[in-house]
Design a protein that fits this description.
This protein is α+β, with helices and mostly antiparallel strands and 79 residues long. It has a single domain, classed as Arc Repressor Mutant, subunit A. The protein has 4 helices and 3 strands. It has a 3-stranded antiparallel beta sheet with strand order 1-3-2. Strand 2 and strand 3 form a beta hairpin. The N and C termini lie close together (9 Å).
Amino acid sequence: MKLTEKSNEVLNYVRDNGGKVAIDEICTALGRAARSVGANVTDLTKKGLAVRVKEAGEEKEITFVELTPEGKTFVPTEE
């Protein structure tokens, strides 16, 4: 399975930071808009590599990206 460069960037960031990261943190760390990161998360979700997890925060609900077991060990194919 092949990922786009930006989806791979999101996957690697989440993997390198414990396997579960808030979308807001990913946006800040990668310097990208929430809409762009959200599209990459949707791509990873459709491929079974990640899931969205919503948790109650102090002021608002926080959406996290959590890698699935497949996402934790995924190595993209070169094409």
